[in-house]
Design goal:
little secondary structure
Length: 81
């Protein structure tokens, strides 16, 4: 009999398995009334935060462009504007 156990442990570090495609279920599990699927997660870039110390220089163009293409709103607005 196949079983799944769940264990809660505090984590200082973690990793994630990344794969594509649908989940694979055992044939005997296909008729169970449980949700099966994939929860897609996204990683987005937030507004750049300058360091607290050191010389203040303008945000480099490559970061300005990156933020515009990869931030949550899709805009190219940065904190310096």
């Amino acid at each position: 009999m196949a079983q799944t156990a769940v264990l809660a442990v505090p984590l200082d570090e973690s990793t994630a398995k990344v794969r594509g495609g649908d989940p694979s279920d055992e044939p005997e599990d296909l008729n169970l009334r449980h949700w099966s699927g994939v929860l897609p997660l996204r990683l987005t870039a937030s507004a750049p935060e300058p360091g607290a110390e050191g010389v203040r220089v303008p945000l480099p163009p490559y970061l300005h462009n990156y933020c515009g293409n990869h931030n949550e709103s899709g805009s190219d607005r940065t904190p310096e504007e």
